[in-house]
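Re: the request from the purification team.
They wanted to know what the chain is likely to look like in 3D before they choose a buffer screen. I agreed to run a prediction and write the result into the notebook, where they can find it.
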Amino acid sequence: MFRALFVTALLVLQIPAFAARDSRSDVILKEYNRLYELVQTLEPEFEVGGLLKGVKMKGVELLWDLASGPSDYDIIRLFVDHPTDPDKFFSVDYYRGTHLIDGHNVVRRFIEPSSSMWVNHTIDFDTGE
């Protein structure tokens, strides 16, 4: 149910989900660009820690902080609390900037089923590699 809610959230946000004809880097760029465009149009409903702006959509929190200058970076996060265990969550985080890999503008996507384990994918934002 927990992951089903997250998948539903992705569909609600109309993010293309791993189309067979697209490479992983294409999918990550599409996800990031769609979310980036979306958060630019949203008015935040709340803030988290004075850093991230956020809105809640059908049980999913969409959190973001976009770069304000060339040395800054973007953070976009989709977050779902576990319905019964406050220590568990599911999130997909996107970071874009030049601070992750020196000299490269990259997008890094973390998928976290909980705070103790995660998967990350990093692609070059400019070349798609």
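For the purification team: The longest helix spans residues 24-41.
Please add any questions underneath this entry.
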